[in-house]
Amino acid sequence: MAPTITAAITNSQDLLSLNHKIRKPLVEKLRRERINSSIEQLKSLLGPDFLKQQPDSNLEKADILEMTVCFLTQLQQQNQQHRKLINHFNKLQSSSDLNLGEADFSPLSSTVQTSSTKDKSPACSALWRPW
Predict the structure, then answer these.
(1) Region Disordered: which residues (predicted)?
(2) DSSP character for 121?
(3) Which of 12, 15, 68, 11 is nearest to 39 (CA)?
(4) Is the distance from CB of 36 to CB of 60 less than 8 angstroms?
(5) Alpha carbon distances (Å) from 62 to 30, 49, 81
(6) Where do the structural domains in the chain lie, given as residue ranges?
(7) Confidence band (pLDDT; 50, 70, 90) for 1?
(8) Residue 65's closest CA among 33, 43, 49?
(9) Whole-angstrom distance, CA of residue 64 vs CA of residue 45
(10) By the 8 A CB rule, do 51 and 29 touch?
């Protein structure tokens, strides 16, 4: 019984090895197709500006990847600059809002005080009653 079990194990290992040998080239081919497709998409996204820089030359995959890295790096730097400007603007706006808020409320409070002192005059102190 033992030889049959070891023979079955050996056969199953051979099948796994054979299956791996058959699948490996297919998996590799699919992986390469995905990579090539993504690189072509990057090339089309880079647009005519980058293609004008090298009009007659055939761009290699490495060139497309390098250009993409440069473009994304520039975009990231611009994004950081925009974020800094927005934060600075928000700080200025909030500080000006605080200053305006204090300036706006001071005339209102004096107006409220004067109107409330007018209401305390003897002529207005009597309540009007409809009955």
Answers:
(1) 109-131
(2) S
(3) 68
(4) no
(5) 20, 18, 29
(6) 14-92
(7) very low
(8) 43
(9) 10
(10) no
0.85 exceeded by pTM: no
Task: DSSP for 30-58, please give it.
Answer: HHHHHHHHHHHHHHHHHHHHHHHHSSSSP
**Token duo for residue 9:** 């194990």
pLDDT 10s digits, 54-94:
655 677 899 889 988 998 999 999 999 999 999 999 988 88
- Return the structure tokens found at 37: 């497709």
Mean pLDDT (the chain) is 75
Distance of CA 118 to the CA centre of its chain: 58
CATH tag, 14-92:
4.10.280.10
At 74 the pLDDT is 93
| CA pair distance 39, 60, nearest whole angstrom | 10
CA distance 87 to 81: 10
